[in-house]
Amino acid sequence: MQRIISSINLCLHNRFFDAEYIKRNNFKFDEEIIMAEDVHFTLLCYEKAEKIVVLPQFIGHNYFVNSKSAVQNNVRSREVTLKFSYGYKKIFDLLLNMGAYYNHFFLTLLNLYVKSAYRSPDFTAEDWATLRREMGPYAKMLTPPPVNKLFSKEEGQAVYEFVTSNLLEDKVNDHSAFINGEDNLRLILKSNADTAYGDFYNFNNINSADEYRRTVPIVDDNDYKKLMRLNMEVGETGLITKKKMKAYAYDFNASDEMRVFPMSEESCFEAWQNFANKLFGEVTFLMMETKPKGTPKNDGTYLDSPIGIMVNSAFEAFSLAYRGFDGKLTMPLTLLFAPEQGNMDYITLLMALRNENVTQIYSSDTWVVFNYLELLFKRGTELCDDIAAGNIKNNNNSEYISRELAVWNQPDARRADEIRGALKSGNDPEEILLKIWPNLKRVIAQISGNYNFYTKKLKKYFKNIKLEFSDFVTPFGIIAKQDGDNFKLDYDKGFYEFLPVTHEKTINTLLVSEVKTGNLYELVLTNIDGLYRMRTGIIIKPVKVNADEFYFEECMRPYIDENNKIIINGEDFEQILEACLLNNLYDYLASYNKDAKRLDVYIELVDESGAAEDYAAKLESLLNNNLNYAKAREDGLNACKVIIIDKETNLLWRDMRRIKYNAPAGCFQPVHNIEDIKLIPLLKLYN
User: Alpha-carbon distance 27 to 41, whole Å?
Assistant: First the structure.
């Protein structure tokens, strides 16, 4: 019996029950139990069972989680929460009477109960006393669980301490400690206490967020470079985490420097699950580059972009034969994972155009989508001619790619004519993509923050096509999910701090309970993969914060002067610039000029006629209506300067960086706000 009841999973949907056995014993659900009533029913059946058969292989069915069910609803009133006790007592007593193994089960349910009490908006001190009185006797029976499939040693110890400290100690509970994620922090620190980093900062003796913030310094990617090098190039292990690393995610910051961050096997697994779920049953135009993994690093890992890790992990799980995967890609896997690869944009687009059954586009971000559409409109005639002739150009001088492309060099004049007809209907932008791909229903891409400018440009093509992005993919892992128009921070993915952007030079961070909605913060992350108080460079604006939910908008970095004062927020500046130039704005970047004490605004125009001075005068007039900008002018800021640059300079800079670093486009963010304009040599001729 101990073997049978050694897991929390006592749900009904993974067992078969003899109907006559249930009728004969008159087993019924107790309608007074509001949580885990199926568990109580299962235990009743187990108690009198003469035989229980454990099947050696998995037999199951798909179970779709109801987000509105009692189990999934984490915020409950005090009355509902306290009613848990009735059912839990019956379940716990039944387990004890059966002589079953109870430790994991008690621990898991009591952990849920305590967290529900914390999340209850009206739980009182008297309610806590009631909870301790009713559940305390069961908490006294607990012991720290051994390592098992439910808990690692550190996870079990952290849950044990959390439950017993709340149910056995006579103290006033610190609600803010729970909201601020101190249980996650303790787990991370205890799990990595015997790493070199954990030993140096004495993780074992840090028991609160305040101690952590006093003891461990806030860092950025430059501080981690040496540690990452020791891991990848020297092969050191146990420096920052006990987790087994599978890959290192990299991207490039606004200063054009590579950032590298560790990703454990668990993080990669979650990434591919999220990606794979989007592909099932769809025909997908994958607008992203995957680079060869190359030679494994000395610690057995590989280096790739966050999107590349996600894609590689997904197809690695299903094998390159795509076995067991109910979905299709427009690019064959032999080319998607080519051992030699250069810029594949033209080939990728042509292969997608040949397939009229595309149902979705999946891309790293809307900047990449915008680039592909520009390529389609500029080289449409050439693309159609190649499809009609059965010719696919290989500009990479790769024998492997030429050999693989030869299979697809089949003429399709009918398809070429369909695409030509769609492109000629340019007066109706929203119909172009649907005429090319009649079944296209959605475009999945990162749409906010620095990408919002391109998202707005694309919307005229997507009026009848859904534009969405469900995951907040970062080099630090997936830390939030899209929910409506905002992202929902995943509390379980780490411990979070928030650095007010008006004080970027300080190390005084705020916790979840201290942030104010509507203000701007840089996200500071601690996670199980070995990042401690890491400045992410991600700027957010909280819109809703409580014990169970943290909703935020991803924002652009504001323009800041040499005294760290905000000149104007990024979103405000972009809206004003768009109002000034209307549909004539193709792209832009701006920089605070410390020497001239002004904003220098570089603009790319659709119609390049007009004088920069005239645009500057109009822009300055509109900017002065902004409170932050007007205050900055009063404090000595000079009038802005507008410089007209050749169209596509920014896109060319991105392409130059791709060539320079041989990195996928998804590794680079558009830079609308740059601190040092000297980083873009291409712009020197305009200065």
Answer: 7
